[in-house]
Design a protein that fits this description.
The chain is an alpha+beta fold. The protein is built from 10 helices and 9 strands.
C-alpha cells in the first residue's frame, strides 16, 4: 500500500492511499465509456499494464463495484457502483449546486444573474445575484416570468413537455401567433438558448440557457440580464459564452451526460431570437 501526500486547502499535507485512487480511476474509465469495456481498452485508457489493471478489477468486482460479462468478457459497473450513483443523484440539489456558479457568472460577465425553476405560476425566480451596477427592474426572488416574452420563459417553453406548459401558453397566446411561437421555440432548441431584447422589460436585454439533470430533463434556467446600453447581447458575445459554459457545468454536476451536452448546439449564427408577434 502506497501513501501519497496532498494538500487540504490549508497548506497542510494529507496522506491518501494510492491504490484507492487508482481503483477510482478504473471506475471513472468504466463510467465514461458508458458501456462494458475490454480489459485491454481499460488498460490503454489508463496507460497502465493490463495485468496491473486486472488486479484492480478483480478487487473491485469482489466489492460489487465492477462486474464481468462471463469469463474473459467485458467489464462494466457493478450493482454497488450503481447504488452509490443513485444515492448521489438523490442528494443533488440544483439550488445548492448552482449557488456558487451563479455568483461566479455574475462576476465573469458583470451582469445580473439569476436562476429560475418551473413553479405553479410558471418560470419562477429562486436565486438572484445583482451585479455592481444594479438593474432597475421590479422582479426579484419569487417573481414569476412570462413564457413568451422573457428569455427564461422561452427556455422552459422550448424544453418542458408541452402538457406542462399548455395552460400558461394558452393564457399568453392571445398576444401572439401560434405558428410564430412554434418557430421561435424551435430556434431556441436549435441554438440551445434564448435571447430577448427589451421584450418583457423595456430596455433590458437577457440571455437564458437550460439546466438539465441526469434524466436529460430541464430542471432550471440560468439567465443573465442587463440594460441594453451595457449588455449588447448576441450569441457570440463573451457574456453569452460564459452563460452557456456555466449552464453546461451545472448540468454536468447534476448528472447530465457530458456526451449529450456536447451534442447540443454550442454555437450558431448571430441571429436575434425574435419575440413572437401577433
Amino acid at each position: 500500500m502506497t501513501l501519497e501526500a496532498g494538500e487540504n486547502g490549508t497548506g497542510k499535507a494529507q496522506f491518501g492511499v494510492q491504490s484507492v485512487e487508482i481503483g477510482l480511476r478504473v471506475l471513472a474509465v468504466l463510467a465514461q465509456a458508458q458501456q462494458p469495456s475490454m480489459l485491454r481498452d481499460i488498460a490503454k485508457e489508463m496507460a497502465m499494464p493490463a495485468a496491473k489493471v486486472h488486479r484492480y478489477l478483480v478487487s473491485l468486482a469482489r466489492a460489487g463495484m465492477v462486474e464481468q460479462e462471463g469469463s474473459g468478457g467485458r467489464y462494466g459497473l457493478g450493482p454497488l457502483a450503481l447504488s452509490i450513483g443513485l444515492a448521489a443523484l438523490h442528494q443533488l440539489d440544483v439550488m445548492k449546486i448552482s449557488a456558487a456558479a451563479i455568483a461566479d457568472l455574475r462576476d465573469r460577465t458583470n451582469q445580473t444573474a439569476m436562476l429560475a425553476i418551473w413553479g405553479a405560476g410558471g418560470p419562477t425566480i429562486v436565486r438572484w445575484e445583482e451585479c455592481r451596477r444594479p438593474v432597475a427592474i421590479n422582479v426579484r426572488v419569487g417573481s414569476a416570468l412570462t413564457l413568451l416574452d422573457s428569455a427564461t420563459g422561452l427556455v422552459f417553453a422550448a424544453y418542458l413537455p408541452r402538457h406542462m406548459t399548455e395552460d400558461k401558453l394558452a393564457e399568453e397566446m392571445h398576444d401572439h401567433n401560434r405558428s410564430d411561437v412554434e418557430k421561435t421555440l424551435a430556434e431556441v432548441r436549435a441554438r440551445g438558448m434564448a435571447i430577448v431584447r427589451g421584450n418583457q422589460l423595456a430596455s433590458i436585454n437577457a440571455a437564458s440557457a437550460p439546466v438539465f439533470d441526469h434524466t436529460s430533463h430541464i430542471v432550471a434556467a440560468l439567465t443573465i440580464l442587463g440594460p441594453e446600453r451595457r449588455f449588447k447581447v448576441n450569441l457570440q458575445s463573451a457574456e453569452v459564452e460564459a452563460l452557456r459554459a456555466t449552464a453546461a457545468e451545472v448540468s454536468e454536476r447534476l448528472g447530465f451526460p457530458r456526451m449529450a451536452a456536447e451534442k447540443r448546439p454550442l454555437r450558431a449564427a448571430a441571429k436575434r431570437v425574435s419575440a413572437p408577434q401577433s
